Each structure stands twice: as structure tokens, then as C-alpha cells.
Amino acid sequence: MTEIRTQDLLRAVFGHAGFRPHQEEIVSHLVNGGDALVIMPTGGGKSLCYQLPSLVRDGVGIVVSPLIALMHDQVVALKQLGVRAEVLNSSQTAEEARRVENSLTAGELDLLYVAPERLLTERFLTLLDRTKIALFAIDEAHCVSQWGHDFRPEYVQLSILHERFPGIPRIALTATADAPTRAEIAQRFHLTNARHFVTGFDRPNIRYHVRMEAGGAREALLRFIREKHPGEAGIVYCLSRKRVDEVAAWLCSQGLTALAYHAGMEADGRRRAQERFLNDDGVIVVATIAFGMGIDKPDVRFVAHLNLPKSLEAYYQETGRAGRDGEPADAWMRYSLSDAIQLQRMIVESDADEAHKRIERQKLDAMLGYCELTSCRRQALLGYFGDTLPEPCGNCDNCLEPPQTWDATTAAQKALSCVHRTGQRFGMNYLIDVLLGKDSERIRDFGHDTLTTFGIGQELGANEWRAVFRQLVARGYLFADHEAFGGLRLTDRCRPLLRGEETLQLARQAAPAKREKKSRGGEAKSGDPLFEALRQRRRELAQKQGVPPYVVFHDSTLAAMAAERPQTLHEFAGLPGVGERKLETYGSAFLEVIRTFNQAQGEQPWAS
Ligand code: ADP
Ligand code: ZN
Q1: pLDDT value of position 177
Q2: Which of 111, 124, 403, 422 is surrounded by the most beta carbons within 10 Å?
Q3: Hey, how many other C-beta atoms are within 10 angstroms of the C-beta on 98?
Q4: Residue 558 lies inside a defined structural domain of this protein
Q5: Nearest C-alpha to atom 10 of ligand 1 is from which residue?
Q6: Residue 396: nearest ligand to its CA?
Q7: Predicted model pTM
Q8: Do the beta carbons of residue 122 and residue 71 sit within 8 Å?
Q9: Which domain holds residue 35?
């Protein structure tokens, strides 16, 4: 019975044709009164796992979430679906709060979103005593972890739900991967007997590209956006505020809509940037990492990094903001060796203790290792998070255009012994001069023209040597010693390479790329006049209600409209993302756009 009912509701309310992996099991487990711990990647579809059971079970689903902005967005989106959802948080007036509380106890709500500190008040708990509750959902459950970066002390006290409302099913959800955090969540929320649902971390619709570049990253970014994502929404991450301002201004000067976002701006300016990003089509936000937390925009088509993130965790989280709607999206990065050196320096100079610094160093090494890969990036990423992908993905730069490699073992040995013989205190350019046997006064002054390594590197040019050194630093064979003005020093890792026990394959520095092709599935999108017309109508409808456009319909739904051109409400109802309420509210408005378009093209809508 419940299976049929959940399927019906999935279609009728949410407009989805089927469940995503694990959703169905989780929903039916909760509907049958079980507890669950759900680990699912961003964009995996976690919300449905508690929203749907809340509709099926008697009573209201109580959702605890730490992010006020997200709660608000979810409630707006749910109301569009005809679901009776409300929110209680500190940003409301007492009167608004009272109205919500009254509907709660009157049994008039399907879902109530509430901030943890509010939930924990005795006043609210007493209200719950008088309310029929369908389930408790604890979103962003990793906030209970003391070791995590988002620790919220109130989350620890949420274990009270288990004690005070023992018969009510509970579901805790997070996208945070690692096993210790997972165990901590289960223990703190008394979910040790709950069923654990862990889905893979892969985001197959995201295509990864990474390239090291000494200069011209900005121009490369512009080319990438113009060729692959014209008029589409994206986020560009930079390391410093100054760079953020500069890149945003430059993109604007090139005719794009780009906004800066960083912690140095006034709260008001930040809020405006965020609102335009959510509400307008095709806005690019250039930001420090401060941007993105708590933003659930589903149609971010690209995330670009103009610098090296400090860990793979940060990289995965930031790139994960692209393509939540499951449509093709790009994670694009250009980084330079000076990023790596700067991050290394930040670690060295920080006040953290040695153990902490070592961990940070290892994380940075892993990040560099990922950048330097010549094999499938997705396999490496998933491997790092403890997941396996048996075959190369076919949707990353290395899979699509396998880089040429060359055996750099001998060159690396020459470079390393040159570092050794010159006393581990010179920078790259000097070392290259020695390898090339350059006639220079400085070299003669140091007596380095008599070394065995003087002039032994003439088989490569200076640029090729630069690439070798960069990659030796990136892979941790060499370390730029800031105490000694950036002189290169050997690390322990060199030994097997110098002894010939290890070989080194390096990527050949590719000639400036062949033009990258547009993402798969991008056809029925920007540029298609019908799609644009539909988008215009969506913008009008959204503006009238003061909601973001994607709350009306996702891009994927518009793309399906443009491709299938439905002519009746019945046909319209078959589109992905169209449930009963949206059919009723918006069906005719969009059908009219399609009809007008067809007529303008001289087609007779009844003739086909
Ligand atoms: P998460 O909270 O895991 O990051 P969301 O719950 O926000 O993910 O869902 C991400 C996107 O996937 C949303 O746009 C949602 O509408 C869509 N989605 C969820 N479940 C399904 C489904 N079964 N079929 C199609 N789209 C879905
Ligand atoms: Zn791949």
C-alpha cells in the first residue's frame, strides 16, 4: 500500500518520475516507523527523504536545520508544491511565530522547519507534546561533531528528542563523508540502532578540469565561460579579497554579469549579491570561500577556481555547489605554483601546533597530487573519500583528452642533484642556469661552474626545466624554504627517486588547449530562442511572487519544455518537475509561450 502511495505522491506533488538511489528505501523505512542515518552527497536528494514520509505519515514532520536562509528557501519551494510548510526562527516577529505555532498545534501543517535553539526551548517542547508528530529530521547532522568545522553546541542537546519523544521516527542527514564523523553522529543522536544509508559520493554530472598555469588564468576563465556557459550562473573562487574585486570588475568590463562577494564587504552588499545570484538568471559570483555555505541554488552550471583550494575536502565541497539539479556542470580550475607556495607559507607561519601543521601539509600535498594527476580525476577523488570507481569516468579532462606523458626520471635526478650540490639554498631560475651551463658571473662567484651538474641539462630548454621544477615542488620532492628566501630544499621523498628505485612520469606541458567543447546536454539551453522565451516567462512569474526563478521551475524542466513543446495540460503534466500544483499554477502560462512561439515559426499547433 505505502509503496503505491509514495510513488503517487512523488509524481503528483514533486513531479518526479522516479526515485533517486536509496530514496525509496529510506522513505519506506521511515513511513514504517524506523530511524535512519543518511549520508548522501550534495544534490543527492536528501530533502525528499523526510519530506515525502512527512506527507504520508499522520502529523507534522519537524525539521531541524542550522541555516536560516536554507529553511526559508525550502519552505518557499514547498509552498509552490502545495505542501503546508512553515518555518520558526529568530528572524520572525512574535506575531508571525504565534500564527505558525497555532497552525502547528491545530494539526494544519505537513512540515515545520525550526532552528535548534528554538526547538530546545521548554516552551516549544511543550507545544510539541500537544502536537501529532510524523517524524523528526535533523539536517546537516555533522554539526554535532566536535571535530568538524561546523560544530553547533545546540546540536548535542538534540538527543533530548529521543528521550522525550521515544516513539517518533528520526532521520539524521548529512553530506559529510568520513567514518569517524558518521560514528559520532550515530552515537550522539542515539541512532546506533538506526539503519544507515550511505550512498556513493560520486557526482557524475560534474566534469572536472584542472590545469596549472603561470599566467593568463583570467583570460582562460573568460574563454571558458563564453564558450561553455554563456548566460549561465556560476561561482568563481579566488584566494584574496583583492583578487575577487579585480576579477569581478574585469569580467564585467568584458560584458558579463559578475558580482564580488567577500567578508570585507558590508553585510548589505553581500546580501544583495547573494539575492541577485539567486533571483536573476546568469549571474556569476566571484568570491572568497566565504560564499556558498547555505546556498542551495540548483542550477549553478560551473564552479571555477582561480587558485588552489587548501584541501581536497574544500575542493569537493566547493565544486559540489555546481549542478545540484543533476544536469551537466563543470568544475574548472587554473592554479599556479605560487598558490602552492603561498599556502605552504600560510601553514608554516600559522600558530597551530606541529601535529596540526603536519595534517594541513598532507592535505595540501593531496590537493597538489590531484592537480598533477595524469589519470582519471574522479577515480582519485572518490578514492580519497574512501569510495571506489572501478572504471575511469569518461567525464574528466584526463579521460576526455588523455595528457601526454614523458619519462622524467633522469631529468628529475639531474634537477635534484643540482639542488643538492649547490647547497639547497637557491631558487629555480638560478638552478636552471646551472643545469644549462650558463656563463654568468654569479655562478662563477659561487664556483658552481666547476660542479658536476654544471651544464648537464642541455637536452631541455629553460621552459621545460621550469615545468620539471614546478612538478617536483607540486609532488613534494622539493620544498620552497621561506626562511631561506624561497631556496629549494630536498625532502625525504627524493631518496627512492635519486637511487633509481622510482620513476617519474610527468605531463607534457600541453600546447594551449584545443577549444573545449560545450558540455553535454547544453543544447536546449541558453541561445535557443524558445528556451529564452520560457526563461523570460519564468522570470516574470518569479518576480511577481518575490521568489527565485528555480522555485517556479528548474532549468531542466524548461529545457524539456523547449525540446518536447507540449501543447496540452495533459502533455505538460508529463514533464519532469511538474507536479499537480505547478501544473495548475503555471501550466497555461508556459503553454501560451510555446503556442506563441510555434505560431511565430509558422507551424500549426494542431497539425502534428
Ligand atoms: P541535497 O539536500 O541532498 O543536497 P536536495 O534535496 O536539495 O539535495 O535535492 C537536489 C535536487 O535534486 C533538487 O533540485 C531536487 O528537486 C532534485 N531531486 C530530488 N529527488 C529527485 C528525484 N527523485 N527525481 C528528480 N529530481 C530529484
Ligand atoms: Zn575521469
Answers
A1: 59
A2: 111
A3: 11
A4: yes
A5: 43
A6: 2
A7: 0.71
A8: no
A9: 2-198
